[in-house]
## 1
Amino acid sequence: MADEITLEVARFRPGEDTEPVLQSYQVPLREQWAVLDGLSYIKDHLDGTLSFRWSCRMGICGSCGMTVNGDPQLSCATFLTDYAPGPIRIEPLHNFPVIRDLVVDIGDFMDKLPTVKPWLVRDVHSPLEEGEYLQTPEQLEDYQQFSMCINCMLCYSACPVYALDQDFIGPAAIALAQRYNLDSRDEGADERLAVLSSPEGIWSCTFVGECSAACPKGVDPAGAIQRYKLTAATQAIKGLLMPRSRR
Amino acid sequence: MYQRPVHLFWWIERRSYLLFVLRELSSVFVAWTVVYLLLLVNAVSDGPASYQRFLDRGGEWWMVAINVIAMLFLLLHVVTWFGLAPRAMVIKVRGSRVPPRQIVAAHYLAWLVLSAIVAWLVLR
């Protein structure tokens, strides 16, 4: 195995560059090193001006999403040796404005997320003395997969619909809405319906499926969206047939 | 900030994007097939001479070519649609989730049964 591998890193320095340019760095090729370790090596030993986000280094915080050889990946969970002999091209996540180098602006997602109310909504909160809202393992299983989302944005980066139409609420936000809709303790499905079934919601999705392929946590946002399409369509028909009944 | 432009041929960047665009395009051929079937029904209802004219036109090389392409797209549409069905349909029987394979199999079975009924109606 070679001792080193080349990382071609997209650099974008606002005020200096009009578009990102690739800069090559030689980093040690170590079996246990992820792409993030390679970037940290550059930052610490070769070029302190390189900017990128990271935090936990263990695939939980969702900060270090980048485009590695064209695919959206968590750079802490993508190993250098899998790309040997290289070079490895590292770019910022696609579909987001680039602030600097590998740092993207995720403000759009942060604005959209609260619109789907990703928290437990209750009509009436029971008093604390009554204890927790209980749930069976089967009820937990109904939504557990969707609760694994770490907001890493890889799904937005993989989604061509979001690339073409930035009004689309997007895969993670809809999957997170479904996470609460399918929770037996939640009563907020009606409140989420208007946003989710708007033209910018589920109906924008054309089921490319790349969000689920990109998801590092097996959330399957595409599946969540299609399931909700079925729910919304069923409710619309029910509403037509039985206009007076509560949804 | 820098916003990466989406170029016109974004859909040939990845195999999955290309397959997706072809699947979307297949809707045009689904619509064409519906129109062609309606034209057939119309020709049949107008009498034998009209039906014969329809058959003659249907036998022309360019019409055969269109319909062969339409059939390929219809197959793509059906196969991909059925393959995706279990992602949208979560069916529970006595508390446990029906495996995705069984949902796909049920779709193919329904397709077979419906095709057999249509074939029986046409050929009897």
Note: Chain B has two domains: 1-88, 89-124.
## 2
Amino acid sequence: MMEAVHLPPFERFYEEQQSVVLAQLRRMLGRDAADDAFQETFLRALRAYPSLQHSRHLRAWALTIARNVALDVLRKPRADGVVPEIPDEDLPAPHAELEHLTGELPPAERAAVVLRYGYDLPYADIAAALGSSEDAARQAASSGVRRLRKRRSE
Amino acid sequence: MTVPNALDARFRDAAATKGLLDVAYDLVDSPVGQLLVAVTDHGVCEISYDPEPEREEEQLARAFGVRVLRSPKPTDEARRQLDEYFAGKRRDFELAVDLRLAREFGRAVLEELARVPYGELTTYGTLAARAGRPRAARAVGTVMNRNPVPIVLPCHRVVGSTGSLVGYAGGLDRKRTLLELEGALLKA
């Protein structure tokens, strides 16, 4: 039974997610680059916000956008001519592939699987993203994986 | 982690500049207390006394769309004109007003209300007649009570047929203050 959860005004979303988003961006990009990425993350969120169907997992959603923005920044050639390592550019990004594969999982499991295996986030961050405990995040990811395996073998 | 003010302000500006907001609002200080001023692409859609931002964000989101954000820049013009008004340097507001939510009669009344000049008083009955329903003085009272943009649409200039102040959504003290400012009432 899914309870329809009403989408809060964007101001509430922004107030509630800004700290975790900035923390994640600083971990990934360092302080300076994180500032630009912060703005880009919330502008992307703002563009997509009206099309959200419900307000479950808004934190996971915000962190996913932040992660994508950070990856875009890391892939971009740097102005100082130093070329950063490009991780496996020919392969589809793991998160993109996972997002496709996990489409039918229950939302919490899907978010846990994508954040753990697609984005390589530690369980502490996933727990923060899902608003749950670390144990619950671990359980959600492992039951998601079990479900995927089961589906594959069917 | 606290988001630095400059970073926060930069995002709030950019969101408005890129045209991504359904409603931008800010809190504005005035001699009649803090006001919440909200604007859409169509103009000022709300001015409220004694703001309760969280509750009002919900209402604005239901009315105009979920992309409601506190963002000062789009409200700057309204703030400037309000400041001038309160300083006695402005008699007429030159601001677009968003009345998309007002229904037929309400809108007709609010449009007539907008024509009541600075420093002058009118009555509920007169306004009803001008809006085409002379016997609807009571309904005009309701429209005044729900006026989404007080001060700019001057419902404070509407009084009872005996000249009594009657009522004001922001409280009679504020109605009196505004009328004194405009020189429509002598200070007691």
Note: Chain A has two domains: 8-87, 89-154.
